[in-house]
Design a protein that fits this description.
The structure is a single chain. The protein has 342 residues and is of the alpha/beta class. The chain has one domain: 3-Layer(aba) Sandwich (Rossmann fold), CATH 3.40.50. The chain has a six-stranded mixed β-sheet, sandwiched between helices. Helix 3 links the parallel strand 2 and strand 3. Helix 12 packs antiparallel against helix 13. It is globular, with a radius of gyration of 20 Å. The mean pLDDT is 93. The chain binds zinc ion.
Amino acid sequence: METFQPGIQPKLCQRCILPDTFPGIKFDANGICNHCLREESAIARATSKKAEYRSRLDNLIKECKGKAPAYDAVMAYSGGKDSSYTLKLLKERYKLRILSLTLDNHFISPVSLENIKRITDNLQCDNIMFRPPWDLVKTVFVQTAQEDVFSPTTLLRASSICTACIGLVKALVLKTALEMSIPLVAFGWSPGQAPIQAAIMKTNPGLTRQSQSALKKAFPGDIRAQMDGYFVPDIYYEMYNDRFPCNIHPLAFFDYNEAKIMQELRDFGWQAPSDTDTNSSNCLLNAFANQCHLRRHGFHPYVWEIANMVRQKVMDRDEGIEKIYTEQNRKMVEYAKEKLGL
Ligand SMILES: [Zn+2]
């Protein structure tokens, strides 16, 4: 197997696959990293909390289901395996009225577009495809491909390109929830992307304003002005003060097994795209975003997520290594670079 930087073999944690290039990492005499040592008891606690979170979600849904005028939940729906599975879970287990919302970032793979149609049709679920104009999207991706505009902590967990795109998605679903009085906002974060402690979280105007403002400020002034209309308008914090939704990401507390998820989705008409990379089942920009991050930081932007899953034993170590320490698909990298004119 080729490593991402031929000739340089990073030393990996013997348990979770974080590399010695990861900022602040330390290894003990057995080659186990400080994150694994620190997380040991937290993981045991989190595992024992899964049932509690499932019943918390049951209760929350009992409280709010059917009360809102149109939808019980708005779902950030990329068409990838995790959000497809989450949508199916919420629809089948809870019979919620769900509005699925897809940000068309101009890099959704054709197979994924088909998956979005097929899954939302099969689930009898509405979908809105939101597509900002190419010039704006291109400006944002060119900027984030060339420069890390976000905080170092943010960049430990995702590339600049992904962070910008996800920031737009989060703002979009929140605005929709506020405008349509929808009580739940659902995400398909994997158990490695977002911790169980945050898996059911009421949002509030104060903290939302802070995080929106931090995200906006990260962009240079001219791009910020163009993007302004996509974030939560200031007036909403007052106007919709009493209807800030609850964010949920159920995959943190339902059993997560990638092979089983893929099988269940395939039986439901979902197809695994062959044209995306190992860490995304929907986006044609991801390989290039990963490559930009690797070159600037020396570690893979998905390694935090995958290491978490290996540590939590929801993914095999070998599988994790294969996902992270394989060279980016050159054809995909070239495709994205050419489209962005880089
Ligand atoms: Zn480790």
